[in-house]
Amino acid sequence: MSAVITKMIMLVSLMFIGYLCSKIHVTGPAFNKNASSVMMNVFLSATILSSVVNVEPTMSNREIYTIVALFFVMMIVIWAIAWAAVRLLRIPREEAGVMLCLITYMNTAFVGFPIVETMYGQEAVFYASLSGIPFNIMLYSVGTITLCGDGTGEKISIRKMITVPLVVTLIGAVIFTLRIPFPQVVEDIIDTLAGATIPMSMIIIGTSLGAVSIKDAVTDWRIYVISLIRLIVCPIVVYYLLSLFMSNPTIVGIITIEAATPAAMVLTVLCLQYDRDDSLASKGIFISTVLSMVTIPFIIWLLL
């Protein structure tokens, strides 16, 4: 727990640096647009590969496939919770899609991976990265339908579902299955790139938060309710559901931590793309990210 709290303090500090950079105009929307692309396609992909080439996995191939299936279960369960919450809270139709997505889609990579690595080691990052398969499939299919649920006529492109981290995760699964060796120089390059993942991701999040009106964010009570459902209700339900038929505590722990992360940053981008309320999405990301610095250690203490 001490290591987790220390890691959370580090993440908050890095995020605050990003926030300050935004306020003094060192970074901004243009930086985030370009840096997010590099972050997702280069650094995050290197982190996924690093988790494969640097460790000797202790789980069987069958367990790997089981993890992917369980992540699908996690996403479906959380979507059901979000659907029920939006209706119980009587969220207006024009905001319902955004609110539902704020609960359903979490920041598994930027926040989840560092915590998983702290709890279970570098190997576990690869297992956590498998969440990218159901995440991308659901985000760019069900998520798009959710945001365009009022009949805007937006078409869902299969191509958009195929992202670089998703492809790298699938490649990593092949490397894991076949135990493909890498030259030392290749491993060193991958490790160097992967080392930039955590600081860059936190600065991007901090810069994103710098564009949000703090007053508007902290006075919207609905955002707090939605965030607590995302951060507390979802991981608790996922944990107890998985515990009914999964005896491996490491797998349950990895999935629970991923389920306890704040709302995904990409939601703001999607809202801009589909002409939805991006300020509402940004407020949800801001509040859930700040609250997660307390709720994630609480979930780990309570359940794991």
User: What structural class is derived from the secondary structure elements?
Assistant: mainly alpha
Strand tally is: 0
Average residue pLDDT: 86
Label the overall shape.
globular
Q: Which percent range fits the helix content?
A: over 70%
Computed CA radius of gyration, to the nearest angstrom: 18 Å
Produce a short descriptive summary.
The protein has 304 residues and is mostly helical. Helix content is 80%, strand content 0%.
Q: What would the keywords be for this entry?
A:
single chain; 304 residues; mainly alpha
Could you describe the 3D structure shown?
The protein is globular, with a radius of gyration of 18 Å. The protein has helices at 2-23, 29-53, 61-88, 93-104, 108-120, 123-129, 132-147, 158-161, 164-178, 184-194, 197-210, 214-218, 221-245, 249-259, 266-273, 278-303. With 304 residues, the chain is mainly alpha-helical.
